[in-house]
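Anyone up for a design puzzle?
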């Protein structure tokens, strides 16, 4: 876990979960936190251990991350 980062809301809904290296564990999570159906939280497992290593938050949903932190940013996947 790392510092808690601000997101657009408090209701996390995973839109996409992916296993890009086919090891049976998720390593990409794309989530909506404010209920509008648009992604604003992007998380990646870069070392294959199943834990979030990098979190990106797109507060204005313009496609460019506003915040990048190491770890899950206080928003662990469900």
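Challenge accepted. My sequence:
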């Amino acid at each position: 876990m790392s510092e808690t980062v601000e997101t657009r809301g408090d209701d996390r809904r995973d839109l996409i979960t992916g296993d890009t290296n086919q090891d049976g564990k998720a390593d990409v999570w794309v989530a909506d936190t404010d209920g509008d159906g648009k992604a604003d939280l992007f998380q990646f497992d870069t070392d294959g251990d199943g834990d979030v290593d990098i979190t990106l938050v797109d507060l204005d949903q313009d496609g460019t991350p506003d915040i990048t932190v190491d770890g899950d940013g206080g928003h662990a996947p469900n």
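A detail worth pointing out: The chain has one domain: 13-70.
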